[in-house]
Design goal:
Elements lengths: L2 H12 L1 H4 L7 H7 L10 E5 L5 H10 L4 E6 L2 H10 L4 E4 L5 H7 L5 E6 L8 H13 L1 E12 L6 H13 E6 L10 E9 L2
Parallel strand pairs: 1-2, 1-4, 2-3, 4-5
Antiparallel strand pairs: 5-7, 6-7
Helix pairs in contact: 3-4, 7-8
């Protein structure tokens, strides 16, 4: 078991409602999740629930020193691990519902891409609404939002509620193919154009 897997599992055992997974995401899922990160310019990338950094590493690889990458992690232990592993990332220990304020504190107003590793299906309807409202507040019409869900849970009421919420929140929601190499298998939601 790798250090990040052991840390991730330990944090999940302590707080399964906020960690939401028993193991870090695969490289294949990370590539799919971060596909909207632009290859040029100085984009603002916001990452939610980065955990031990499976998506963080891929975002950093794609940015190659450009732009601003802010990662919002509510778990202090995971945030500390992430900061040590990725010193160029602006790691913030806070609630993702404070996204507009967190960007404003940094002199930023909008994000170009939001990559979410949050366990949406584990959240109450109120929490989903609060977090999605924060996400769309920092998006302009060209921004992209990606998040993932586990294939085995696709038909559960919380997962279906979240999918309906995405369709109500964004004009465009594309469901990607299942990433079988992830444990457990997962698929990605690609969303654009928030309905304001």
């Amino acid at each position: 078991m790798t250090n990040d897997t052991a840390l991730f599992l330990g944090q999940w055992l302590r707080s399964p409602g906020t960690v939401g997974a028993v193991a870090p995401s695969s490289r294949r899922l990370a590539e799919t999740m971060t596909s909207p990160v632009p290859h040029r310019g100085d984009p603002v990338i916001v990452e939610l629930g980065p955990g031990t950094g499976a998506f963080t590493a891929e975002i950093q690889r794609r940015l190659d020193g450009r732009g601003h990458h802010m990662a919002v992690e509510i778990n202090p232990r995971l945030a500390e691990f992430l900061s040590a592993r990725h010193p160029k990332v602006d790691v913030v220990v806070d609630d993702a519902a404070r996204l507009p304020q967190l960007l404003q504190e940094r002199g930023l107003h909008r994000a170009d891409v939001i990559v979410s590793g949050l366990p949406w299906a584990a959240f109450s309807q109120e929490t989903q609404t609060r977090l999605l409202d924060a996400v769309i507040t920092i998006m302009d019409s060209n921004a992209a939002f990606t998040t993932f869900a586990y294939s085995f849970a696709k038909r559960t009421p919380p997962a279906q509620r979240f999918r309906r919420r995405l369709l109500d929140t964004f004009e465009e929601v594309v469901v990607g193919r299942t990433v079988w190499g992830n444990l457990p298998p997962a698929f990605v939601y690609h969303a654009r154009r928030p309905r304001m």
